């Protein structure tokens, strides 16, 4: 296997007396979709926020492209090439697609905005992702469907030469056709060589696009395995009990949480 683009090693995180993450190891590989799964309270959100630079680590290493790095803010993480698409998408309904994709990072020409360059780059990015469901990059986001909004949010993330994209429940509340569009886009991101992290409760989505599955149970990694080596029922058992047959946490490890 190639070297991971991103590795977290031995990460611990506590909030007061609550120990949320216990010696977590997590890796993201180029050209692969890594599904991060776990029940509510398993620590998924905390781990993602540590990767995103929102939370600091109590202990543990943050390694990017083989080198240990210091991350203190989301700006540091974005500079590395890591983008996060949260479930609420963080899009502004009153702005069009171009304005949303460049929000806070606008291109300028003289004292004004370089609308031509921004529109061209937005169109090129959507085309490179084989997005054909958006009629115009000047459409207002308020006029877009749920699937189209998710597509714009993902395109916004990859616009900045990102190497890793984290997607938080990207198909939540989408219909069948829209889910199909988003999953196809997720796979295309990996096929372009990006490292993709898919956070999802939907096991159908996970097994359709994921190359690896990392299952969290009560703040510990219960398993980190190739998707082809586990079944749907095994992953559900890992999520709910931390163990499935010979796979997962030992009883002693589970009991110490």
From TrEMBL:
InterPro entries per record: AAA+_ATPase (IPR003593), ABC_carbohydrate_import_ATPase (IPR050107), ABC_transporter-like_ATP-bd (IPR003439), P-loop_NTPase (IPR027417)
Coiled coil: none
Superkingdom as given in the UniProt entry: Bacteria
Molecular function as annotated in GO: ATP binding
Cross-referenced PROSITE patterns: ABC_TRANSPORTER_2
ATP-binding recorded as keyword: yes
Presence of keyword Lipid metabolism: no
Domain ABC transporter: 6-243
UniProt KW keywords: ATP-binding, Nucleotide-binding
Name under which the protein is recorded: Sugar ABC transporter ATP-binding protein
Species of provenance: Nocardioides deserti
Lineage summary: Bacteria, Bacillati, Actinomycetota, Actinomycetes, Propionibacteriales
């Amino acid at each position: 296997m190639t070297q991971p683009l991103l590795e977290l090693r031995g990460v611990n995180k506590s909030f007061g007396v609550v120990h949320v993450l216990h010696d977590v190891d997590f890796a993201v590989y180029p050209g692969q979709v890594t599904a991060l799964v776990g029940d509510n309270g398993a620590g998924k959100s905390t781990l993602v926020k540590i990767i995103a630079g929102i939370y600091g680590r109590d202990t543990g290493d943050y390694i990017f492209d083989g080198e240990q790095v210091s991350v203190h803010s989301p700006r540091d993480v974005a500079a590395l090439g890591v983008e996060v698409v949260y479930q609420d998408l963080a899009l502004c309904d009153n702005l069009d697609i171009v304005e949303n994709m460049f929000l806070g990072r606008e291109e300028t020409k003289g004292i004004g905005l370089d609308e031509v360059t921004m529109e061209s780059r937005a169109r090129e990015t959507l085309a490179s992702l084989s997005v054909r469901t958006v009629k115009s990059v000047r459409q207002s986001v308020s006029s877009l469907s749920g699937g189209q909004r998710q597509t714009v949010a993902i395109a916004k993330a990859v616009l900045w030469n990102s190497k890793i994209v984290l997607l938080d429940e990207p198909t939540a509340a989408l219909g069948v056709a829209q889910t199909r569009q988003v999953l196809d886009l997720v796979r295309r991101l990996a096929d372009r060589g990006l490292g993709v992290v898919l956070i999802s409760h939907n096991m159908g989505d996970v097994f359709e696009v994921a190359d690896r599955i990392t299952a969290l149970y009560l703040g510990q990694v219960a398993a980190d395995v190739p998707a082809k080596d586990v079944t749907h029922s095994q992953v559900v058992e890992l999520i709910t009990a931390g163990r499935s047959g010979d796979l997962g946490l030992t009883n002693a490890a589970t009991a110490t949480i």
